[in-house]
Amino acid sequence: MAEAHQAVAFQFTITPEGIDLHLSYQALSQIYLSGLRSWKKRISRIKNRIIKGVYPASPSSWLFVVIAILATMYMQSDPSMGLIAKIREHLPLSLSLSAQGQTVLSVLLFSTLLWLSLILALRFCLKLLLSYHRWMFELHGRISTKTKVWATLVRLLSSRKPLLYSYQTSLPHLPVPSIKDTLERYLESVKPLLDVDGFQRMTRLAAEFEKSLGNRLQKYLKLKALWATNYVSDWWEEYVYLRSRSPIMVNSNYYGMDFLYVTPTSTQAARAGNTITALFLYRRKVNREELNPSRIPGTVIPLCAAQCERMFNTTRTPGEETDVLQHWQDSEFVAVYHRGRYFRLWVYRAGRLLSPREIQYQIQRILDDPSPPSPGEDKLGALTAGNRTPWAQMRKQFFSSGVNKRSLDCIEKAAFFVTLDDQEEGMMGENPSVNLDRYAKSLLHGKCYDRWFDKSFSVVVYKNGKNGLNAEHSWADAPIVAHLWEFTLATDAFHLGYTADGNCKGEIEHSLPPPQRLSWDIPLQVQMQVSESLAVAQALADDVDCHVFPFREFGKGRIKKMKLSPDSFVQLALQLAYYRDREHCHKLLRKAAEKHQNLYRLAMTGSGIDRHLFCLYVVSKYLGVESPFLKEVLSEPWRLSTSQTPVQQMELFDLVNHPEFISLGGGFGPVADDGYGVSYIIMGEEMINFHVSCKHSCTETDSHKFGSQISQAMMDLMTLLNPDFKEATKANPDKQS
């Protein structure tokens, strides 16, 4: 209360002599500086809206157009072909301007209209150019003249440095594939998985669907695609993620890991200080749109950046039938969990971001706080880990007013969530492999109550300085979070750095008010639901089997020498590991790799089959019609779900001089109860990191066994491509894991 009392800008006391007014100039100064920062941000946003609104032109090009028109008018030439005179005739009579003034005003209006027309034309041309996809299917080194001309035009129209969202209005709409093409590709993909009778039955169902219901559903889908830039995304977000009533922990959320071999500091508070600072520096770049738009690797083709908008200050709030993603414009604090207590930590003071050393100081205050959790507080986070409907009911009944709402608002409106974990994690000790697996499980689910799984992402900082994050999936795909985490790790280790004794750098303002402890009034009914949700979450967490391992025998460098795509190679290795039904022919291996690469390209150009079939299924549900074909397709389990986490900012990591600063990437839980979830990240030229997950309850799956099969499959495929590789490996056994 003392800190709250000091924060009040003015106080007054009523006395017999009148009102005694006391002003707190320090508080008033902070209010002024905070307001100044807010106005600067507003001005910056307005400026960015103008800059990206006229892209690919620039605001200064307006002046060039005006000067050019005025110059031609001065030379007794009318480039407007009479339009300037028409504009002058229709100027309001109330404008008491001279004849020359009216002419200048008419020129300004015409120039502005011409400038806006040119912007729209340039934007339309850029959209047409970005709709060209043939380049993706051309062989490396055999680029056609048409593609070379196209690439030159794209570079010309993209020559001005763009802001993060500059390309959004120039990106083409996602095309709707034809029903015939999608069904043909689907049947081709399931043919190896079905017996003869099963494939004939599925072929018959597909033909019946195409002739009857399919074309009707396709018309509705094309109608949606006319006005929606992406006909899939909103339905995918709602029906695949937000409407799911099962726990999002393990089933949906995923994790990202720290460096594999090093920990920049073993001081927990210091690591938290730098990590939080780096994340807010990234948020500043997002808000100012200073990040370069992501592009398809090795090209100038921009990717959609819309998912970056909800990265911070975002929470998935539970509903009885569907969840809702809530996003707030800005937040100057984070929510922190430690030993069963929740805190609000302000990271801005008087309009400035606290230094890493000041944030460390505040974190240490939390670590040193001896106060116990209030009744029902310590495991409250289990509500976000269990089934969604009970959490929605508890939130509506007990967290919609009073002290519980105020504290819940502090968590949900926070920039992100931070857990100060009492455990030590990482690849350490006498059994580093087992500890690495435990580290993955900790980031995936923790204790099931010490993370807030509804937040867009939660940062975990362990007692030994190791860190990681857990991300909610509905607001963005993994590459968006991976980009954030790459920046955070690189900024932490290489830019912010630490002192010789492992503390953060910077000065401390010791008058900082301490972090605010959140208060709760948790009734018995909520505590009972917390216990039930924790039991559900604990059973799910105990069932998860995780295995993380770095594959060091070779990396993308050797694979590229074999003239194969590294991603295709790894995908084939995963298939081989799953089925152990080898390709004994070199030619068949290359054919399979080329097939995977072609399917990848089709998916990149909007011709993938799963999203199209999913949207057709959604339309059928809206129309209240049943399709045996779609019902069977959408009910098929994903027994081998794979994902590559791309390294997008390799320039931030100097792996030549600092090869130990290698990130492990991240992983996710199994999609099917009897299947595997496999994530992999290709690091540099010499390493590929794998994250494998499955469930203990399935007797047919084992993450460690499957990990061994992946390693063996990688070796087998490389030996098939390069018989000398096996002999070279025997000669250098130290390189093997």
Q: Brief description of this entry?
A:
One of its GO terms (molecular function) is carnitine O-palmitoyltransferase activity. Keywords: Acyltransferase, Fatty acid metabolism, Lipid metabolism, Membrane, Mitochondrion, Transferase, Transmembrane, Transmembrane helix, Transport. This protein is of the alpha+beta class and 737 residues long.
Any overview of this molecule?
With 737 residues, this protein is of the alpha+beta class. The strands form five sheets. It has an eight-stranded mixed sheet, with helices on both faces. A four-stranded mixed sheet has the order 14-18-17-15. Strand 17 and strand 18 (687-695) form a beta hairpin. Helix 10 crosses helix 15, helix 18 crosses helix 22 (703-721) and helix 20 (609-623) packs across helix 21 (628-634).
Major sheet: size, sense and barrel closure?
8 strands, mixed
Quaternary state reads: single chain
The N- to C-terminal Cα distance equals 57 Å
Low-confidence stretches: 1-8
Summarize the amount of helix as a percent range. 40-55%
Radius of gyration: 29 Å
Average of pLDDT: 87
Tertiary shape: globular
- What is the number of helices? 23
